[in-house]
């Protein structure tokens, strides 16, 4: 009896991850917290959290190992009695993708290299079928509540990431040529104070907390199939410690929404605030949201003034490149985006496209949208919408090289609905 | 029957009533020559939490005058919400300059009232007088005699709680997860709050809480075997009741918890310093014995 249990205990846990400040992790989880049951997939590169709604909407948070201070993944051995050390796995071909992620934010300065943005696509979901991962289901809301047990992982304090990040980004990129105004200003103003701030942040990271603002540290462990997810949460060494054991379930198969990059009919990259402001204007009673894309008209690129464009609009000469149209019982709203690189950093559209989605589903993305800096919006020829939100990491880019992101995929409504 | 006092410490009075109001719709206040007792002993509030408090008259009032046939004591029942509303205007930021709050027993249209008279100068220098009347029922001495504090066995242990505001954030998170909260502690500075449901078990633990020496223990320490300081005592209470108690965090400085295993949790909330306490609020939260006998 005891003999058989010993070697099992000797097995290392499938996953051990720790972080000194859970706010970023919690904000990523919160971004996909629209249904309580989430599937967590553990791979060598990080965690993916997948949540599904109404067989139509799929939300996935990609949390790279670099988000954590410590991240150890031991693939579950096929038989418990053979804990043979596994040979180091060959690096997958997607591996070089990680360092490329920051490219996404550099599109502002290097808009000509748009094509590289495709590298940001996490379309390697097929990987999940591969054997080198572990998957389990957890009640996501419970996990988030547990992380916030001391009230220091909440949304209000979580915003700090967005305020810190532009500085880090500015440093990484040097001058920044065609950058958005807000970023440029941030970079200029903080040029002097930057070193000091960075230092302060370094010290904070060392002592695991600022003087006033409590930070919650966490260590999570997952021993393997059938075991609970164990979390140890503490604010600092002297304070209380919370231990949570969250029951895990066997993963249920999820909706598969494969996005074929070759069938893209509309592709837009824009600052998240532009989309967030538009969506927040809409009345929650709306039922349907339509994205309409028109190929850019060549002479309209000068941005010579709104009046002119509006006039030509009325004449029906030039159509807006991107129009968001919402309709409901009480009326409809239309919003047009100007053809301006400041707004639509990337815009690819060969012919007029129009696809509608349930507004309720689009609203599910709003929490992720709010804490993101950039959005990539793509639609394929069947109307499958892919929204990717870049979630700025509070850490310096140099340290981990990877900002996490959240992706939503949503099926279009049938035309006649 | 005469009663009149000037409320000096409106803010503290207001905060106490604020916590009481969240607990129970009506409360009983007993004024004696030296103390004010706020009592909530209604059985029909959720979870059966009771409050028996004792606040020194001079920590809240001055010019305190009381006269009655019942040993110079007056006991009254009133709506805690109305009392809170009466105290709200003088305690808010928009209060008048040189304000004075007089609390007195009055009678209007054959109805007993506790009247709060607020007088002072407005910002522009006009004299102002605001009166709030709180309808009360003066209790008969026979009924007063029936008011008795719950009887509890000698507590198994005493432990000083961490700041209640911090506890409140934690219990706030636990509440949606479980209606039952296990409150556990030992005589070696350890305090544990635990919940468990189908999908999660959460335990928050402190290892640096002081155990004040209980006076009774020192007296008859000889005949008893020294108890193992690491033995955990536990009481299972309603999470919602505990959360309601934690509303008192606005006035608390020091709080001592006593566990009477599988009977109740007693919490002493001191107003001001322990040694020179202006008053003590005692909360009784009954234990819930569930099927597992936890």
TrEMBL record, chain A:
Annotated localization: Nucleus
GO cellular component: checkpoint clamp complex
Main location: nucleus
InterPro entries: DNA_clamp_sf, Rad1_Rec1_Rad17
Biased composition (Pro residues): 77-88
Gene3D superfamilies noted in UniProt: 3.70.10.10
Biased composition (Acidic residues): 105-127
Keywords of this entry: DNA damage, DNA repair, Nucleus
Nucleus listed as a keyword: yes
Pfam entry (one): Rad1
Superkingdom per UniProt: Eukaryota
Biased composition (Gly residues): 169-181
Region (Disordered): 75-129, 162-197, 289-312
One GO-annotated biological process of the protein: DNA repair
DNA damage among keywords: yes
Family statement: Belongs to the rad1 family.
Protein name: Rad1-domain-containing protein
Organism of origin: Pholiota conissans
From TrEMBL, chain B:
Location relative to the cell: Nucleus
InterPro entries: DNA_clamp_sf (IPR046938), HUS1 (IPR016580), HUS1/Mec3 (IPR007150)
Domain of life: Eukaryota
GO CC annotation terms, alphabetical: checkpoint clamp complex; nucleolus; site of double-strand break
An individual GO BP term: mitotic intra-S DNA damage checkpoint signaling
Any matching Pfam family: Hus1
Keywords: Nucleus
Entry's family note: Belongs to the HUS1 family.
Protein's name in the database: Checkpoint protein
């Amino acid at each position: 009896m005891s003999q058989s249990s010993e070697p099992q205990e000797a097995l290392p846990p499938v996953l051990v991850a720790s972080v000194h400040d859970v706010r970023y992790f919690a904000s990523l989880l919160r971004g996909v917290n629209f249904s309580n049951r989430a599937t967590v997939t553990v791979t060598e590169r990080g965690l993916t959290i997948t949540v599904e709604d109404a067989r139509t909407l799929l939300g996935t948070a990609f949390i790279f190992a670099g988000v954590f201070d410590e991240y150890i993944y031991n693939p579950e051995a096929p038989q418990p009695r053979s804990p043979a050390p596994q040979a180091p796995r060959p690096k997958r071909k997607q591996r070089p993708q990680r360092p490329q992620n920051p490219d996404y934010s550099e599109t502002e300065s290097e808009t000509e290299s748009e094509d590289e943005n495709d590298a940001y696509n996490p379309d390697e979901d097929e990987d999940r079928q591969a054997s080198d991962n572990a998957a389990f289901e957890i009640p996501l809301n419970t996990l988030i509540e547990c992380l916030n047990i001391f009230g220091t992982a909440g949304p209000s304090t979580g915003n700090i990431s967005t305020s810190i990040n532009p500085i880090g980004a500015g440093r990484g990129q040097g001058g920044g040529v065609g950058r958005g105004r807000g970023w440029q200003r941030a970079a200029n103003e903080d040029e002097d104070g930057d070193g000091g701030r960075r230092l302060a942040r370094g010290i904070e990271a060392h002592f695991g907390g600022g003087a006033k603002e409590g930070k919650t540290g966490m260590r999570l462990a997952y021993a393997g199939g059938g075991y609970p997810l164990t979390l140890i949460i503490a604010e600092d060494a002297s304070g209380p410690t919370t231990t949570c054991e969250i029951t895990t379930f066997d993963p249920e198969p999820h909706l598969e929404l494969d996005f074929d990059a070759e069938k893209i009919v509309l592709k837009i990259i824009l600052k998240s605030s532009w989309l967030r402001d538009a969506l927040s204007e809409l009345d929650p009673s709306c039922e349907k949201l339509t994205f309409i894309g028109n190929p850019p008209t060549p002479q309209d690129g000068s941005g010579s003034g709104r009046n002119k464009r509006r006039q030509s609009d009325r004449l029906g000469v030039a159509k807006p490149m991107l129009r968001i149209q919402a309709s409901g019982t009480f009326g409809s709203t239309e919003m047009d985006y100007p053809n301006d690189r400041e707004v639509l950093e990337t815009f690819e559209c060969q012919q007029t496209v129009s696809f509608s989605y349930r507004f309720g589903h689009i609203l599910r993305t709003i929490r992720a949208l709010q804490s993101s800096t950039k959005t990539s919006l793509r639609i394929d020829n069947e109307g499958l919408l892919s929204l990717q939100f870049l979630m700025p990491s509070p850490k310096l880019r140099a340290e981990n090289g990877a900002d996490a992101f959240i992706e939503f995929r949503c099926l279009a409504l049938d035309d006649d609905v | 029957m005469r009663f009149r006092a000037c409320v000096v410490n409106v803010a503290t009075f207001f905060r106490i009533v604020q916590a009481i109001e969240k607990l129970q719709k009506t409360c009983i206040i007993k004024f004696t020559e030296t103390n004010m007792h706020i009592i909530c002993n209604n059985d029909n509030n959720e979870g059966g939490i009771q409050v028996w408090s004792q606040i020194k008259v001079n920590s809240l009032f001055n010019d305190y005058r009381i006269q009655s046939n019942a040993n110079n004591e007056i006991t009254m029942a009133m709506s805690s919400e109305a009392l809170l509303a009466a105290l709200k205007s003088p305690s808010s930021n928009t209060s008048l300059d040189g304000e004075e709050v007089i609390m007195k027993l009055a009678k209007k249209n054959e109805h007993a009232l506790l009247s709060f008279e607020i007088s002072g100068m407005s910002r522009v220098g006009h004299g102002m007088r605001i009166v709030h009347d709180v309808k009360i029922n003066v209790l008969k001495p026979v009924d007063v005699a029936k008011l008795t504090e719950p009887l509890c066995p000698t507590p198994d242990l005493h432990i000083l709680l961490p700041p209640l505001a911090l506890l409140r954030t934690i219990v706030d998170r636990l509440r949606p997860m479980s209606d039952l909260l296990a409150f556990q502690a030992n005589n070696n500075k350890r305090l544990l709050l635990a919940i468990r449901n189908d999908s999660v078990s959460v335990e928050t633990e402190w290892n640096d809480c002081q155990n004040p020496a209980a006076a009774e223990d020192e007296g008859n320490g000889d005949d008893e075997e020294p108890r193992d300081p690491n033995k955990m005592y536990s009481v299972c209470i309603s999470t919602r009741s505990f959360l309601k108690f934690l509303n008192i965090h606005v006035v608390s400085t020091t709080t001592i918890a006593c566990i009477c295993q599988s009977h109740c949790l007693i919490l002493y909330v001191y107003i001001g310093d322990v040694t020179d306490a202006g008053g003590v609020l005692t909360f009784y939260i009954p234990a819930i014995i569930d099927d597992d006998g936890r």
